[in-house]
Amino acid sequence: MTEQVVAPPADFNLLYSAGYGRLAAQLYAYLGDAGEAEDIAQEAFLRAWRDWARISGYDDPVAWVRRVAWNLATSRLRVVGRIARIREPSDAVAALGPDRVALVSALRQLPERQRLAVVLHYLGDLSVADVSAELNAARGTVLSWLHRARQQLATLLEEGSA
């Protein structure tokens, strides 16, 4: 007996088309592994599709998908451990260009919460208030993370270019 494949509704297709690339890019910056980022983004959207009747009723389905993706990525990092954070970029990642590789490498050296704040705010275009809500942290804490992260990134990127 073959399983019948059901096409996703049009509103889900729009959500996926508009959000997949951005989410995968954010996850890549967070994880430092393009393949893992794509797998996690696909898994998050698959979970949304499976429960689309409920998710589509949310005020912001994109926020739900993003939260699922971040939870999956954080779990993946915990399972893999610190080795995933310090390994050298793969040949495929290196082919993306030296600036992008340098940025991802520098991001991987930030503490997890700072890295999340930077990725959500600068790459995800979320406001500080939205990052605060997403990470369940006070606004001042998020501002502090962003400030420290910018300082550390500037140092790391300057050292990398020397």
Describe this structure in words.
The chain has 2 domains: 10-95, Rna Polymerase Sigma Factor, Chain: A; 109-162, Orthogonal Bundle (Arc Repressor Mutant, subunit A), CATH 1.10.10.10. The protein is globular and about 50 Å long. Helix 1 packs across helix 7 (98-108). 77% of the residues lie in helices and 0% in strands. 25% of the residues are buried. It has 10 helices and no strands. Residues 82-86 have low confidence and may be disordered. The chain has 162 residues and is an all-alpha fold.
Key structural traits:
162 residues; mainly alpha; Rna Polymerase Sigma Factor, Chain: A; globular
CATH topology of the largest domain: Rna Polymerase Sigma Factor, Chain: A
What structural class do the secondary elements suggest?
mainly alpha
Query: What is the radius of gyration computed over CA atoms, rounded to a whole number of angstroms?
Result: 17 Å
Quick one: overall form?
A: globular
Query: Averaged pLDDT, please?
Result: 82
Helix share bin: over 70%
Proportion of residues in β-strands: under 5%
Can you name the CATH architecture of the largest domain? Orthogonal Bundle
Number of strands: 0
* Tally of separate domains: 2
Q: SSE order, as H and E?
A: HHHHHHHHHH
User: Given the structure, what is the number of helices?
Assistant: 10
Question: Main β-sheet: number of strands, strand sense, barrel status?
Answer: none
Summarize the structure.
It is built from ten helices and no strands.
